[in-house]
From TrEMBL, chains A, B:
<keyword id="KW-0804">Transcription</keyword>
<dbReference type="GO" id="GO:0000976">
    <property type="term" value="F:transcription cis-regulatory region binding"/>
</dbReference>
<dbReference type="InterPro" id="IPR010982">
    <property type="entry name" value="Lambda_DNA-bd_dom_sf"/>
</dbReference>
<dbReference type="Pfam" id="PF00356">
    <property type="entry name" value="LacI"/>
</dbReference>
<dbReference type="InterPro" id="IPR028082">
    <property type="entry name" value="Peripla_BP_I"/>
</dbReference>
<dbReference type="GO" id="GO:0003700">
    <property type="term" value="F:DNA-binding transcription factor activity"/>
</dbReference>
<keyword id="KW-0805">Transcription regulation</keyword>
<protein>
    <submittedName>
        <fullName>LacI family transcriptional regulator</fullName>
    </submittedName>
</protein>
<dbReference type="Pfam" id="PF13377">
    <property type="entry name" value="Peripla_BP_3"/>
</dbReference>
<dbReference type="InterPro" id="IPR046335">
    <property type="entry name" value="LacI/GalR-like_sensor"/>
</dbReference>
<keyword id="KW-0238">DNA-binding</keyword>
<dbReference type="InterPro" id="IPR000843">
    <property type="entry name" value="HTH_LacI"/>
</dbReference>
<feature type="domain" description="HTH lacI-type">
    <location>
        <begin position="12"/>
        <end position="68"/>
    </location>
</feature>
DNA sequence: TTGTAGGCGTTATCAT
DNA sequence: ATGATAACGCCTACAA
């Protein structure tokens, strides 16, 4: 005598579990939730869990979110995923968030404020619980507004002027210090800086660090030897170096704002028949992948990408858990990776 | 006489809009939804829209999803975000999905089946409406199961044996054909292949295309000149080339399964004091970024990354809209980018 | 054309 | 310890 069985083709719901275990849905809910499980008789709980298991019950996160107003998601706002700097950061973030029960939405803004606004709007409408933002500019009305509205966020790599937000950045001062010390140690005295965009905190702090480092080494700080790039990109790096070369001031080494800017220099060297490092030494920043296979392999300042992501994840979790905690920021120490793009300055130090 | 105003600190809801417009929430709902707007008096609709606008109403997608059982999200399953192949593909996907009202969740599996299963589970529990999968292996129980369960998906770059799923791939046959023809044109007759993993369809199809191309050019197909790499990675490329070199069979050129495998060869050249292309010419596949700055700049088969993503997005939308449509697959034409890693074969053709 | 009512699946708050 | 009930915000037959 086969027992009749009604087959539901949709996913099993809480009430199915409850029915099977012979309890009320509310009880099943309590039994299933580790937080509230001790409110329920151990035997009952076991029965419910077995029932859930047996029919493959998975709670519907949408219904849960509607009720609890929590989604277990955070947004990741990245300026440009094709910049190889970010994947390891993303990885670090995920490795921290996943065990805490959060998932991350990654969005790409392509350095376009309009696109950024739309993307952030999409994230908010999907009720993310917090934001990790890598697109900060020094003046950033959108982020300022979000902050005022109480959106929880953590900045990565860059900061916003006058906004007290938790952030994780590399220690630019230390990193540029390493780069300059390395070049000075090689005998360079005329060192140029291809600065990143000065509307980003990182562009500014690296430029400032560069000036300080020159002074520390007793070198003159010639403003003509610092040129700003409009973006953190190869093409802007190339433009910057052309301006530097056309400026007529002699220099034997370049500290680039980041690796992409440094790689842009390589294009100009090719254009003008110059060779690196013989004509000009170059140092990058970030230690992006594949630098060891470049022509020449690029000397650079390495930063702990993965750890930056992991720290950002931790800060965001803290911010979500304790909204009133005073914003901490984390500074991570860089290190220098010496490769073949730097070499001792020519003896005729005034050359080039 | 200021009108009293009750201030809600939470997001405005449909009922707030309705109240402000002096209509029932149901009417407001209809007015707000373009699909049902013509059911409502044009004036009323206008009033509702203005009311919504004025208080910045955004429908709560969670409540909507609970009701409609649709989420407007799809999952993107990527083996390794640090592979620069993927960002432009992701971009293409997003550019197609966004206008259609969908957002994409990106997850990273790191080539780890366990992690993949967990990530896919997370996506499904968040009720994504479809999956774009770039991690397919030729035998892939997880994907087979998902397919049986009716999960809508599109494969990118790789396929699953015996599973009729829509897919978007580069035309491997044509691409490898270009590479081999180029090398033959340069006089190479002993050409090796560093094949990608044979558990991926791409690895197999490129290896098969390689054999066919040799035959087409009347060259002997020496099995000892094909070596399989365990992953699509630099380190496996390096291992493969070492095995090839240690095998004692002469060859003057290598067709690598992809760019990363090709770059792995560069490491071995450095190790063994060989120079590329003088000792061995190398061709890659994919045209990943920065190849032009490598030492030497890598000749490679370029594929339209962005278009691959865009096509995948379109296929998925089709699959969602017309679930019963017969699975189409799209093959995109590659092109050859000649750089400095390939050069005419040495006159002494039997050398090396 | 508009309003009514019920429900999507879960959980929080009562009461028992 | 468990059950009943309502509510999260929205949508949609159905009724008016």
């Amino acid at each position: 005598m086969a027992s009749p069985k009604i087959v539901r083709m949709t996913a099993p719901r809480l009430r199915d579990v409850a029915q099977l275990a012979g309890v009320h849905p509310a009880t099943a809910s309590r039994a299933l939730n580790p937080q509230t499980r001790q409110q329920v008789n151990a035997d009952t709980a076991r029965r419910v869990l077995r029932a859930a298991e047996s029919i493959g019950y998975q709670p519907n996160p949408i219904a849960r979110s509607l009720k609890t107003a929590r989604t277990g998601t955070v947004g990741l706002v990245i300026p440009d995923l094709t910049n190889p700097l970010f994947p390891p950061i993303v990885r670090g973030i995920e490795d921290v968030l996943t065990p805490a029960g959060y998932n991350a939405w990654i969005v790409n803004t392509d350095n376009d404020p309009q696109r950024e606004e739309a993307q952030v709007e999409a994230l908010r409408s999907r009720q993310v619980e917090g934001l990790i933002v890598a697109t900060a500019r020094r003046t950033h009305p959108l982020l300022a507004r979000l902050h005022r509205q109480g959106v929880k966020m953590v900045l990565v790599n860059r900061r916003v002027d006058g906004l007290e937000l938790p952030s994780v950045t590399a220690d630019d001062d230390a990193g540029i210090g390493l780069a300059v010390a390395h070049l000075v140690g090689l005998g360079h005295t005329r060192i140029a800086h291809l600065a990143g965009p000065q509307h980003t905190s990182t562009g500014v702090s690296r430029a400032r660090a560069f000036r300080h480092a020159l002074i520390d080494h007793g070198l003159p700080d010639d403003p003509a030897l610092t040129v700003e790039c409009g973006y953190w990109s190869e093409s802007e790096g190339a433009r910057g170096l052309r301006r530097l070369l056309d400026g007529g001031r002699a220099f034997t080494a370049v500290v680039a704002g980041n690796d992409l800017i440094a790689l842009g220099c390589y294009d100009v060297f090719a254009e003008r028949g110059m060779t690196c490092p013989d004509d000009v030494s170059v140092v990058g920043f970030n230690e992006m992948p594949y630098l060891d296979k470049m022509r020449p392999p690029l000397t650079t300042v390495a930063i702990p990408h993965y750890e930056i992501g992991a720290e950002a994840g931790r800060l965001l979790l803290d911010t979500i858990d304790e909204p009133d905690r005073y914003p901490r920021s984390v500074l991570l120490a860089p290190s220098l990776v010496v490769r073949a793009s730097t070499t001792p300055a020519p003896c005729d130090a005034a050359s080039r």
